[in-house]
Design brief:
The chain has eight helices and eight strands. It has two domains: about 140 residues, HAD superfamily/HAD-like (Rossmann fold), CATH 3.40.50; about 70 residues, DNA polymerase, domain 1 (Orthogonal Bundle). Helices cover about 35% and strands about 15% of the residues. β4, α6 and β5 form a beta-alpha-beta unit. Strands 5-4-1-6-7-8 form a six-stranded parallel sheet, sandwiched between helices. A two-stranded antiparallel ribbon has the order 2-3. It is of the alpha/beta class and about 220 residues long. α1 packs across α4 and α3 crosses α4.
Length: about 220
């Protein structure tokens, strides 16, 4: 199987292009410390990533990937504000590109593909991270969790990007690491590629039926 006929590639960000867990964990634990609450190991927080800032804060307040129904709304709002303040100051303190990401993106760009980002991260954080990691010039468009009124796994962000570039679903493909990415593609009837090294709540991404699964980002060169 190859995807050389595609024209538009939609990438997830966290867990696909970048390992942002160290900075998310740092910011989350600083938030919990400020609130006088229990902090958590980075590996525990790693299993909470993938549904945006609000969800990771709710999971931290719950102490579990399963969000408690008893979270105080005022506490949540305060915690979210504190977390976002800490995180904006630590976007790339320890965040790094996964192996072979920059070179592979450059290759895809040179081949003429339109590269975009569809992430559940707040929009304001996307561009600073891309610029700090020196890949911002490779992307033609980015949308975050708050760019539209729906986020992944909704198909709406994918439809929005296709419409912006006047590309059909058949000429487009979603690449990501989590069920939110693959389900969004499925909901849009779009082809998808999953990578295995990211954040998917300890589930096997194969369960969500991506067209192809890769262990290494550079394997994209085999199909594009």
């Amino acid at each position: 199987m190859d995807f050389k006929h595609k024209e538009l590639i939609l990438f997830d960000l966290d867990g696909t292009l970048i390992d942002s867990v160290p900075d998310l964990a740092l910011s989350l634990n600083l938030t919990l410390e400020k609130l006088g609450m229990q902090t958590y190991e980075e590996n525990t927080i790693r299993s909470w990533v993938g549904n945006g800032a609000a969800t990771i804060v709710k999971r931290a307040l719950s102490g579990s990937v399963e969000i408690s129904e008893d979270i105080n709304e005022d506490l949540f709002n305060k915690a979210l504000e504190i977390f976002l303040d800490f995180y904006k100051d630590n976007l790339t303190t320890s965040t790094r590109l996964y192996p072979n990401v920059k070179h592979t993106l450059q290759s895809l760009k040179q081949k003429g593909y339109i590269l975009t980002i569809v992430t559940n991260k707040p929009y304001a954080f996307i561009e600073p991270i891309l610029q700090d990691l020196k890949i911002g010039n490779l992307f033609s468009y980015c949308i975050g969790a708050d760019s539209l009124d729906e986020k992944k796994p909704s198909a709406k962000p994918l439809f929005h990007v296709c419409a912006k570039f006047n590309k059909s679903i058949e000429k487009s493909i979603m690449i990501g690491d989590s069920k939110n990415d693959i389900l969004a593609a499925s909901n849009a009837s779009m082809d998808s590629i999953a990578v295995t090294y990211g954040y998917n709540y300890d589930e096997n991404i194969v369960k969500y039926n991506p067209n192809v699964v890769f262990d290494n980002f550079s394997s994209l060169n085999k199909v594009f």
